[in-house]
């Protein structure tokens, strides 16, 4: 019996035992003396059922991503929300959304008030990345991609005689299915137990590639991932105390250990290639957390400590599947990967004065990699055995964070806040053994009256550390290179947010943010970057309870980097600018003659990315990458009777993009790359829907 099935059965038995205990306790409990003079508990059933249909004008992978409306044609529209409360404290809920689509969600829950709750749910999230991709390779087994039987290999993509006739659709995307169970039991007043189980599967295709020296093949790799998560917890709360003990576990299974594909080229390499996929692995963690509230200065102390274990013991693949190569022996059968984790945090907050609040927090996260170290002799692209050996690097690290914060309230006008954050990062087998980051910040919050509210924050941050050194027995690296996550960095930032209500029917908002990064000691790598964002919003209440709202935001991301073609001093620089603009305007018109509600939304987005290169004696620029979208949504809700209403709507969306790296690149365009031929996505989409909504358990309207 495999691990996944064994764990599922164990959890089912545990929940079954809990349910049997609940049944006994429920039978013995006497609720006749439970009285609450001011409590009004609902009784009976109420809910909403919606049935109808969608019609989609054209097929589009991007439009169907997450929505499930990826193909033209008709779809069922089905939603349901049902609740029931019994006199004895029993309750039941059903929540179903998008039940006729691939983006469906269904949850069934119930229980007995104050004693137990149980929920079973399922959710499907469709992911569609491309529907115009084509390849001569198709799946013929678990992780096996084969060429047609009449395939004739060629020296390059232009000399494969039956390439065009062998191309078949190879869409990219997968279904992400989630199923779960959650259970809570409160056998006594101060004690509760809970258990959760979740299984996620991903089935479909994702983009991958393989190569034989300088000749590459892009293909749609089958995906069959399964992830399971388990949580068991025990809570105790009484007086000023809270305690929780918890176990968390997760397992991952990839479905198959490798992806194998036929070599379409007649040049170097064997007739079959193979590469590993994500290996099976597991993680287990136990934790203990709690808090205590002191009466002195309303002080709260909370703490948590957790220890865990990561394991990865999948068998290694052979160095190569090339029968013409004599592969050396592997030093071991599997990685025997093992990582011990330790997490702890402590937080204290207190009010020594009426207007003053102080808090301090400490966190530590440690990963001790116990994986054995061995020497390996790589085979390059299943074609050439390396003359050198390399050792695996079991990275370990220890991270510590400390935060101090103070808040002083100014009587009637706002508050002043200030803080200091400290971070220490210790690493093994990396270019820098330790980095430290210091950050100081201050916030002024103002609220002089009922019409104005806002805050302004400024912060400065500095990161430095030990000497930067190149690694031994690793891929060669220019000694002038500095990795951005470990390099010295200075960051200055500010943030502003204001909301203003000049009169009761008008609301205005303004927000802005700016960050500037400087890597002053990085000769090669990322040298500078900045981020800015500004947003404006407003709304106005119109006659008849109608309202108009508007939003605009502008976002800008810039970065500068330096590089070297000759593994020496820098001789080129690159700058990248990404710009995003978004505008939204809408109007709602409710209860036209007490029958018809209308809502209209319009959204416009525009994004662009520009990369400029400067060489020693010349400069150039890549073509600009752009994407624009216009979206209009119209909703109408007509009340036919007290319980029945008619809903209709129209959703129009136009999307266009330009990407020089994809435009005109077909499977045979590049002589040494057999690509999938995906093109920049564009569509002009229209969706119409209509549905009937029935509500039951709804109170009758009161007569005038």
What topology does this entry show?
Blueprint: H1 3-28, E1 44-56, H2 61-64, E2 73-85, E3 90-97, E4 105-112, E5 116-130, E6 134-135, E7 138-141, E8 144-146, H3 163-166, E9 168-169, E10 172-188, E11 191-212, E12 215-238, E13 241-253, E14 258-262, E15 272-276, E16 281-294, E17 299-312, E18 337-353, E19 356-369, E20 375-376, E21 379-380, E22 384-385, E23 390-391, E24 397-410, E25 414-427, E26 434-446, E27 452-465, E28 489-500, E29 506-518, E30 525-541, E31 547-563, E32 572-592, E33 596-615, E34 619-621, E35 625-639, E36 644-658, E37 673-674, E38 683-696
Parallel strand pairs: 8-14, 12-37
Antiparallel strand pairs: 1-2, 1-38, 2-3, 3-4, 4-5, 5-10, 6-9, 7-8, 10-11, 11-12, 12-13, 13-16, 14-15, 16-17, 17-18, 18-19, 19-24, 20-23, 21-22, 24-25, 25-26, 26-27, 27-28, 28-29, 29-30, 30-31, 31-32, 32-33, 33-34, 33-35, 35-36, 36-38
Short description, anyone?
The protein contains three helices and 38 strands.
Overview of this protein structure:
With 704 residues, this protein is mainly beta. 5% of the residues lie in helices and 60% in strands. The chain has three helices and 38 strands. The strands form five sheets. The protein has a 26-stranded antiparallel β-barrel. A four-stranded mixed β-sheet has the order 7-8-14-15, with no helix packed on it. Strands 6-9 form a two-stranded antiparallel sheet. The longest helix has 26 residues, at 3-28. It is globular and about 90 Å long. Mean pLDDT is 91; it is low at 1-29.
């Amino acid at each position: 019996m495999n691990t996944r099935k064994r764990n599922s059965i164990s959890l089912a038995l545990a929940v079954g035992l809990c349910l049997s205990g609940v049944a006994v306790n429920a039978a013995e409990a006497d609720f006749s003396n439970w009285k609450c003079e001011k409590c009004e508990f609902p009784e009976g059933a109420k809910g909403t059922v919606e049935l109808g249909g969608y019609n989609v004008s054209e097929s589009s992978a991007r439009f169907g991503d997450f929505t499930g409306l990826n193909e033209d044609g008709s779809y069922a529209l089905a939603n349901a929300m049902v609740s029931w409360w019994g006199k004895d404290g029993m309750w039941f809920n059903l929540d179903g959304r998008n039940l006729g689509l691939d983006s469906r969600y269904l949850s069934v829950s119930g229980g007995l008030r104050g004693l137990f709750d149980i929920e079973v749910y399922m959710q499907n999230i469709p992911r569609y990345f491309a529907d115009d991709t084509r390849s001569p390779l198709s799946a013929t087994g678990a992780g096996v991609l084969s060429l047609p039987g009449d395939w004739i290999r060629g020296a390059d993509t232009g000399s494969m005689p039956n390439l065009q006739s062998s191309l078949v659709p190879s869409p990219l995307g997968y279904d992400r299915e989630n199923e779960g169970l959650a259970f809570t039991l409160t056998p006594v007043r101060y004690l509760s137990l809970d258990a959760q189980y979740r299984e996620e599967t991903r089935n479909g295709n994702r983009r991958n590639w393989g190569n034989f020296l300088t000749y590459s093949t892009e293909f749609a790799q089958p995906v069959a991932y399964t992830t399971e998560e388990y949580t068991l917890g025990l809570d105790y709360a009484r007086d000023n105390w809270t305690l929780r003990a918890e176990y968390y576990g997760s397992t991952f299974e990839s479905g198959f250990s490798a992806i194998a594909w036929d070599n379409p080229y007649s040049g170097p390499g064997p007739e079959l290639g193979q590469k590993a996929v994500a290996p099976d692995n597991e993680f287990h963690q136990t934790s203990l957390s709690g808090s205590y509230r002191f009466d002195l200065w309303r002080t709260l102390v909370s703490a948590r400590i957790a220890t865990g274990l990561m394991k990865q013991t999948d068998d290694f693949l052979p160095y190569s599947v090339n029968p013409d190569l004599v592969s050396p022996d592997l030093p071991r059968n599997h990685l025997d990967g093992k990582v011990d984790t330790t997490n702890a945090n402590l937080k204290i907050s207190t009010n020594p004065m009426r207007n003053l609040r102080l808090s301090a927090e400490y966190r530590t996260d440690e990963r001790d990699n116990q994986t054995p170290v061995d020497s390996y002799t790589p085979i390059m692209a299943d074609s050439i055995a390396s003359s050198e050996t390399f050792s695996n690097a079991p990275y370990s690290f220890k991270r510590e964070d400390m935060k101090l914060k103070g808040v002083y309230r100014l009587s009637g006008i706002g508050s002043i806040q200030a803080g200091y954050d400290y971070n220490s990062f210790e690493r093994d087998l990396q270019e820098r053994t330790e980095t430290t980051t210091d950050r100081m910040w201050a916030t002024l919050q103002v609220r002089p009256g009922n019409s104005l509210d806002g805050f302004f924050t400024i912060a400065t941050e500095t990161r430095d550390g030990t000497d930067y050194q190149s690694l031994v027995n690793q891929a060669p690296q220019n000694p002038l290179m500095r990795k951005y996550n470990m390099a010295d960095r200075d960051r200055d930032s500010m943030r502003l947010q204001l909301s203003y209500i000049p009169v009761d029917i008008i609301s205005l908002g303004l927000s802005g943010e700016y960050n500037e990064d400087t890597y002053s000691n990085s000769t090669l790598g990322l040298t500078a970057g900045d981020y800015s964002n500004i947003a404006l919003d407003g709304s106005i209440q119109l006659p008849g309870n109608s309202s108009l709202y508007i939003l605009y935001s502008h976002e800008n991301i810039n970065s500068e980097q330096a590089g070297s073609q000759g593994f020496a001093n820098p001789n080129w620089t690159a700058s990248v600018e990404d710009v995003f603009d978004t505008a939204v305007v809408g109007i709602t018109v409710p209860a036209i003659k007490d029958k018809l509600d209308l809502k209209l939304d319009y959204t416009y987005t525009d994004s662009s990315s520009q990369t400029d290169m400067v060489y020693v004696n010349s400069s150039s620029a890549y073509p600009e990458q752009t994407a624009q979208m216009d979206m209009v949504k119209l909703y109408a809700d007509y009340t036919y009777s007290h319980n029945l209403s008619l809903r209709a709507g129209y959703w129009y969306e136009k999307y266009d993009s330009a990407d020089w790296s994809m435009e005109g690149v077909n499977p045979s365009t590049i002589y040494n790359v057999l690509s999938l031929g995906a093109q920049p996505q564009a569509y002009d989409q229209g969706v119409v829907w209509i549905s009937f909504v029935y509500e039951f358990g709804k109170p009758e309207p009161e007569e005038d």
